[in-house]
Amino acid sequence: MLTALALLVGLLAALGAAAVPLARAANGGRLLHGATALAGFLLAAGGVVGLLGGPATLDLPFGPPWGPMRLALDALSSWFLLPVGLSVGCAGLFALGGAYGPVPARDLLPWPIFVAGMVLTLLAADGFTLLLGFEAMSLASWALVARDGAGAENQRAARIYLGFAGLGGLCLMLGFGLLAGGAGDVAFAALRDDPPEGARAAAVLALLLAGAGSKAGLAPLHVWLPLAHPAAPTHVSAAMSGAMTKVALYVIARFIFDLMGPAQPFWMGTPLIALGAATAVIGALRAALEEDSKVLLACSTIENVGLIAVGLGLALAFRGADLPALAALAGGAALLHALNHAVFKTLLFLVAGEVLHGALSRRLDRLGGLIHRMPVTAWAALIGAAAAASLPPLSGFASEWLLLQALLTAWRVGDIAFQMGVAAATTLAALAAALAAAAMVRFWGLVFLGRPRTPRAAGAEESTGAARIALLVPAGLTLLLGLFPGPVLDLAEPALRLVSGTAAPRAGWFAIGAGDGGARYWPVPVALLVAAAVGLAVWLVRRRAPAGVQRGPAWDCGFIAAPPHFPFGDPAGQPSAAGFAQPLRRMLGQGLLAAHETVTMPGPGETRAAVLRSGFADPALETLEGPLPRWREAAAARAERLRALSIRQCLGLTFGAVVLMLALLAWIGAR
Amino acid sequence: MRFGQLSYDLSHLLGGAVLLLSFVLLYQRRIGAVINAFATQGTLLAMAAAWAAYAQGTPGLYLTALLALAVKGVLIPLALHRLVRELNLHRTVETALGVGPSMIAGVALVGLCILVTLPATEGARLLSRETLALAMSVVLLGMLMMITRRNAISQVVGLLSLENGLILAAVGVAGMPLVVELSTAALVLMIALVAGVFAFQIRERFDTLDTGSLEEHRGEQR
Amino acid sequence: MAAVWSVLSQLLHVALALAAAPLLTGVVRWLKARMMGRRGPHPLQPLRDILKLLRKRPVLAENASAVSLAAPYLAAGAAVAAIALVPSFARGMALAPLSDLILIAGLLALGRVAMALAGMDVGSPFGGLGASREMSFAALAEPALVMAVLTLAILAGTTNLDAIGGSFRDGGLGLRVSLGLALVALLAVAIAENARIPVDNPSTHLELTMVHEAMILESSGRHLALWEYAAQLRLLLWLGLLATVFLPLGQAPAGSAPHLWIVGLGAWAVKIGGLALGLAAFESAIAKMRVFRVPEFLGAALLLGLLGAVLLFVSTGLA
């Protein structure tokens, strides 16, 4: 199996190379996207086979000067092939539906390379190969983000993304270096034999969180994500949110559960839990406030990444506290949510792309009423949005239910400070889930319900063919994953064994449970119960009520009737994106996102209108673009001043440095 | 003593209720409601003391209970209400820090207290350890109230509730000598404080109870 | 035999809940009217209203989509499904393994989302305003609920409501501060979820302050009847939930024969009646708060729930 997957990576890379001649052909774009879509589904199939079969390793006949490139397929990498494959497959299908005529080569070339990079990262069995894949993934996706050179926003996004990608790669490289220690062998097998301890382990974790965490979107290094993910073409956005964040999470999981050895203390999990909870809240809150559909979805990705990180951190803590059953529970929650999120977020991004294609806008304030013009897209989007809002019986609810169960049992780790911290993290996770529901209602309601806000939205059309299938496949998968999380968890059992260190309990067909004696969630019976209750309501109402409805003009709530040149009514008479966000902006935005509202009233006698301005800014981005460059400037100015020192001052400086070094030496010697 | 035994349960519940009232004090913004909450806290403290007197078999604590009930549950609240009426402060609503942040700070303080108290009291009785954590939280919440309020009366109430926390600690730890004497002395001090000197003098000089206006007279620029 | 009894008790429970929900709302209204010195409508008036509404043909806006048609049924169905999971007179009903508190919260969220989307369907300002406020307040109410669930789950070892009720009844858990704090948090959430005073006023159409009514302003006929009925079911659900967790006395144990149900039925009627009386008294005594004070109210509930959990760690860590 591994050989086939390695060949697939090679073929994808070759496809990238072939993009230049393909771009000239009339059907070249379709061919390339079709091939990538096929590769995506094959990858997912490969993941399933890898989970059912045993682990495998493969040494490639080429590589860096010091040895061959090593590949391996174990349960963890097999599991992460599933979200990556499904996301890439659907995204490729969507791109296939949208590609007509010749496409510029620079739009085509990076896409297969991007996919190949992700798969190579998953299959890597030594540090060099992993970094190679990781960097290929980063650079190819950067090329796709930067492709639209015209827009200043895109350029800014690409610049910031490149900066973060460089930082991430550097941190990972340092992490591997620190992990390898003096031996310098970065093969995973060698790294496993010499697990870090104490301060070295903590340093590796910090580098990992900066390196892979920034790629996944963990706060406070999440700021590039809402800029870069939406800037790329739709299918790339979908794969970046659905697949690339999962690859970054895989790297985190690979480090903390495998390479850093099984004997880490439980507090190693706390940074992940704390950062994850903070990330989830900030992402969900931003998703509830953003006014651009793709930015909103990217922020929702941040939220879900945060929740998955909480699950991973809990699993690590439980394993450190010698509670393997609970570690399997938390790990299962994280792995299942990674898969569920990959599927529904791919679906939602593709929906946003379809809406952009049909109604020519991403801004919520320019859409509306699309359920009438784009019904298939609307209902598919509703499934995705309901899953993202974690409503039963859809997929998001199943995995967040598991995560909440893991959080609710975290008090079994006996340390009281940990218990309090996890209680606070539980609050934040629940807050994030509820905020995500608000964000998704706002997204779906403003885009698909109401009246069209622009003529473009009124004349929207939806595509058929491959693009429609690309929406229906993840929508169907979301339903299936929601109804049958048990078999999926059973499939993940080998990966969970790797995470928790012992055999994970079987979940069974119809229920997932929180360990022995704990609560259980039965998705199919719950769906049947709700269906029966709805059926009961329909039947009872049908018996007494007259059939049919009467139609009348919508009540305008006392607004002045729209003038005739507004055939779709007055846009100001509908809730706007900013208006819908107002309660949350006031409740939480002021504290967390520096949200502000100012009213400018005209003086008496003036004829201009009163103006209400509102907005918010992510403090992390403010820091990045505000003080950091200022500090750099200040440091440069300070250094500049050193040149003007007199010789006596220079000598004094040197002398001071020597004395300082001596003191340091003495201190180290004394210890 | 453990859960399920009445003597433990009641002390635990009363201590927790005193702490809950501290949070109510933080949450309330109207002065009248703040005073009522304080009166309830005083009454609960009196009940806690009375129950401790019964459970520990120290009749002296009944005196503490009686004093707490009479002075904190009835007299001081009545006096404060009267003050509010006379100064015409019925509808005053003011905080320096918002309700949300001060509540979050309050919960964080409770967490801190627990983290500090539990290791420090290793080996003590179960109830005393828990009561100490609760009492210390009440003390810190009283301080928090004093620094987050701008109104002199709210600050006085914060100080009084801080003192409630001290008495709760003294009452909860069995075998503590001089509890009665201490609580009586503290009460006298409190009454002297509340006797209006504070509030009336500010009122006379500055025509407001906002302690912020005192700062202009410190001789230094803010 | 026990299996038969469990199915029978489940069916009886659902039928009882469906019948009792409008009556409960009517009783609360009647009690409130009596407390305010009015005679008040007959307690069966809500049921009569629903029957009257059912006979009327609904009027929909021209641009209303299928969401307006389907959402009332979904919301009512979610409410029925949720109330089927909350034990009333007996434990161990057929659906008891499903009665997970987080699932019940999820079903309530399902109904809430259906209502918010129905409010946004036509694109009228009030619908959007109500939906926005409802979802925002729920963003604080849900974590508060989860915090209360955390306390209950630590004490009972599970989030299954049936099992929690059982262990609280038999377990001798004692009086605990944490339970008190969880109760306070749950009461606040219940008030917010049911749009009662002081969060929302269930009996007005005063535009500037309303939340719940704003979303269903456009509904009429059978749709309005379903919305009203779902709201009544939710009220009964919350009172039943509080009664099961905090007043478990009198419930027939799992697998018991029908003669014990009679005691359970009586106890249930007394508990729900008492809670209705308390609700009416509370609503008569208190004024509605400003809309933007609601987040503070719910935030305080959330923090008290968290405090309850933290204090529980202390006592479990010590014992």
UniProtKB/TrEMBL annotation, chain A:
Keywords attached to this Swiss-Prot or TrEMBL record, sorted alphabetically, are:
Cell membrane, Membrane, Oxidoreductase, Signal, Transmembrane, Transmembrane helix
- How does the record classify its membrane topology? Multi-pass membrane protein
Top-level lineage group:
Bacteria
Q: Where in the cell is it found?
A: Cell membrane; Membrane
> Which chain regions cross the lipid bilayer?
35-58, 79-101, 113-146, 158-181, 201-224, 236-257, 269-288, 295-318, 338-356, 376-396, 416-444, 465-484, 521-541, 650-670
Per its UniProt record, what Pfam families does this chain match? Proton_antipo_M (PF00361)
Its recorded name reads Hydrogenase 4 subunit B
The uppermost taxa in this organism's lineage are: Bacteria, Pseudomonadati, Pseudomonadota, Alphaproteobacteria, Acetobacterales
From TrEMBL, chain B:
Q: Which UniProt keywords apply?
A: Cell membrane, Membrane, Transmembrane, Transmembrane helix
The reply on keyword Transmembrane is: yes
- Membrane-crossing residue ranges in chain numbering: 6-27, 34-54, 60-84, 96-120, 132-149, 156-176, 182-200
Where in or outside the cell is it found?
A: Cell membrane
InterPro entries assigned to the protein according to its UniProt record, in alphabetical order: HyfE-like
What membrane topology is annotated for this entry?
Multi-pass membrane protein
Q: Does the keyword Flavoprotein apply?
A: no
What PANTHER family has UniProt attached to this entry?
HYDROGENASE-4 COMPONENT E
Q: What is this protein called?
A: Hydrogenase-4 component E
- List the source organism: Neoroseomonas terrae
| Source lineage | Bacteria, Pseudomonadati, Pseudomonadota, Alphaproteobacteria, Acetobacterales
From TrEMBL, chain C:
How does it sit in the bilayer?
Multi-pass membrane protein
Q: Which residues cross the membrane?
A: 12-31, 64-89, 101-123, 135-155, 175-192, 235-254, 260-282, 294-314
Give the UniProt keywords, A-Z: Membrane, Transmembrane, Transmembrane helix
**Has UniProt tagged this entry with the keyword Membrane?**
yes
Q: Name the Pfam families for this protein.
A: NADHdh
Q: Which domain of life is it from?
A: Bacteria
Q: Where in the cell is it found?
A: Membrane
This chain's protein is named: Formate hydrogenlyase
